[in-house]
Each structure stands twice: as C-alpha cells, then as structure tokens.
Design goal:
seven-stranded mixed sheet, alpha/beta, Copper Amine Oxidase, Chain A, domain 1, 2 domains, TIM Barrel, 21 strands
Length: 365
C-alpha cells in the first residue's frame, strides 16, 4: 500500500496566501477560546441585597451576570437540589419553580400545574457550583433588581417585610451579662470550664454541636445537671450560606433530636456556625420557633490567644446586657488554654464591677 507523502503535498500546494489564511484562522480560534475562558472565569463583587453589600462570586457569560444558585438564599429564597430531575428548586413565599441545570428554562409551579418559561441564558457549572442568571431568577421570585450605572452596583430588594432579627445583646439597663461557650461538649475543655463555673457559682449557656453531643452524652448531661442553659449550634458546624436549605433543616433537626434523646429537652436558642446566616435561614429558624443568638464580645479564643489577652478583650468591651463568645472544644492542641486561664479572672473582675452572670434565656426575659 502506497504511503501518502504529506510533505510533498504541502510543498506542492502551499503558498504565501494559504499560509497567511491558515495563521489568521488559528489566531481566531485562540482568541475565541481566550474570550470564552475570560467570560467563564470567576470574579467577585458586592451585590446589595436590601441595601446590605454581600460579596459573591460571579461569571459573565454572553453579556449576562450569573451568580451561584445558593446566593438566592441571601434574598430569602429556599434553594434545594433535586437529584432525580437534575434541577435546582427555588421557593419564596408562594412562588416555586425549578431550573434544570445547564438549560435555559425554568418550570414554574402555578396552582399545581407546571409551566415552562425561557431564561435569557443557560446556567453553567464552574468550580462545582451552578451559576444562574441573576436578573431572570430574581424577577421570577418577585424581587426587584436594578443596576446603578453611576455606582456600577447591582441592587436587589425583597419587598416582603423582614421581621426576624439576630440578637447580640440583652437589656442594657441591667448589669446582667451572659457567658456562652460554643462547639462542645468536649472531654478536654468542657469539664475544666464546668469546674470553674461550679466553683464560682456562675451559670453559662452552651451552644452544642450535635455530633459532639452524640460522642459525649455524659458531658452534655453534666452541663444540664449543673444548671447551665443550652442552645443548638448545628450538627456538623457547616457554613450555612454554602449549603442547601434542606441541609440547613437537617443540621438543626438532627441536633434537636440528639439533644432530646440525651437530656430530654429541645432548646429554642440557635447560634449559627461562624455567625454566618442567610435571610432564608433566618426565616426558617423563626418559623420553627428559634431565637438567633449572636454576641457582643468576641474573645477570639479559638485563635490561641493567651489568658491575659482574652481577659483584656472581655474587660475592655463588656457592657450591661453583653453576651460573651467563647469556645469549649479541642480543635487544635492547647488552642483554648487561654480560655480556661482567663475564665476565673473574668468572673472575679466583672463581679467586682457589679455585674451578675446569667444564662442567655434570663438575659432576654
């Protein structure tokens, strides 16, 4: 069988004109790929949701502004993944629709009937996230979206009244303050903290992680037996803005269940892991009867600060009605030694200043 002489063919038919056309063609392909890569690459910007700037990743694709589907939780929408239909479900008040990922349509549920509508551009997957067109989804959720040309900013407004609030302190007219401890129970630090509180006759509030309660039920039982209050701090300590709405519900309900089995009660206080919460998460917590508890003094003890530094932070920042954030878990060796060292000094100094230590529930009564 004769072999084709490629070199001979090129030499026979090549010309300067042909070579220039070939080069132009190659450059056009490269240029097109660079544009697509640039448009699909992730950037960050603030989107103003109810006039509050919230940072989000975004993608510009074919001139459209796409954001992660989970970002709509910041606007109050529940966002869930339907594995069976490979779609993302959005729900806000009486509005529900599903978006088959990668498509340019949404299926709207109206009076138990599904109607299909087109979007301006398809959703895309980037770095494990699904990005959807901001303008289309917000408008279908009944939200108001505008772009300010002068400020170069995007604004989204939820017209529904926001009645839920995060509680960072109590009544400032009384010299009551509350010590709180997150992330336990833990066999290293929690017993040491309990010993100090018992010795000083001071109550505190422990925001417990469900999986820790499951591992150390006897320590959880001791917390309650010695008169301390408890709160729900999720089951696995995820960042709520980064998980689906049904996962948020599971984190909370699973912790309630393990607390009920362990100590025979379910708290109505919740503190979000990392203090991170979306409007949709807040609305759900409110609906199921939780108060969302934050803090007014962050000791930053989890960073490994010394007892002296923690003591100074609390003494310098405390005010009547204050809620002090501390931790009680051995995430890193010796990281919370400062917490244990500072605690008796904090109690003695603030009592000397006329403060009374109470649980968060008492602080809010």
């Amino acid at each position: 069988m004769n072999r084709i002489n490629i070199t001979g063919i090129i030499q026979k038919y090549a010309s300067k004109k042909f070579i220039w056309l070939l080069l132009i063609f190659i450059l056009l392909i490269i240029s097109s790929e660079l544009v697509d890569a640039q448009e699909s690459s992730l950037s960050k910007a603030d989107v103003y949701v109810d006039n509050v700037p919230i940072s989000t990743e975004y993608v510009l694709k074919d001139g459209y502004f796409l954001v992660p589907a989970l970002f709509f939780k910041e606007m109050g929408s529940y966002v869930d993944w339907n594995e069976e239909y490979d779609s993302i479900e959005f729900h806000l008040n009486n509005i529900s629709f599903a978006h088959p990922t990668g498509s340019s349509v949404i299926d709207i549920n109206t009076n138990n009937k599904w109607e299909r509508e087109e979007l301006s551009t398809p959703s895309i997957h980037v770095d494990g996230q699904t990005f959807v067109p901001l303008n289309d989804i917000t408008k279908h959720l009944g939200l108001e979206v505008t772009y300010n040309e002068y400020l170069k900013k995007t604004f989204v407004k939820n017209p529904n009244v926001r009645n839920v609030r995060r509680i960072g302190s109590g009544d400032g007219t009384k010299n009551y303050i509350a010590l709180t401890f997150d992330d336990g129970p833990d066999p290293l630090y929690t017993p040491q903290i309990l010993d100090i509180l018992k010795d000083k006759g001071v109550p505190a509030t422990f925001f417990a992680i469900g999986e820790q309660v499951k591992k150390h039920p006897e320590i959880m039982q001791r917390i309650v037996k010695e008169g301390h209050a408890i709160g729900n701090h999720s089951f696995t300590h995820p960042e709520f803005p980064k998980i689906q709405s049904n996962e948020v519900r599971d984190e909370i309900s699973n912790t309630q269940e393990v607390l009920s089995k362990t100590i025979g009660r379910k708290p109505d206080l919740f503190r979000p892991p990392y203090g991170a919460l979306t409007r949709a998460d807040e609305e759900f917590l409110h609906q199921v009867g939780f108060q969302t508890i934050m803090w007014s003094v962050d000791t930053l003890d989890w960073t490994g600060l010394s007892g002296d530094k923690i003591f100074q932070i609390v003494v310098n920042q405390i005010e009547p009605g204050g809620i002090v954030l501390q931790h009680n878990i051995d995430w890193n060796p010796d990281n919370l030694n400062g917490t244990v060292e500072a605690l008796p000094r904090i109690i003695e100094e603030l009592q000397h200043q006329g403060y009374t230590f109470v649980t968060v529930q008492t602080l809010l009564d």
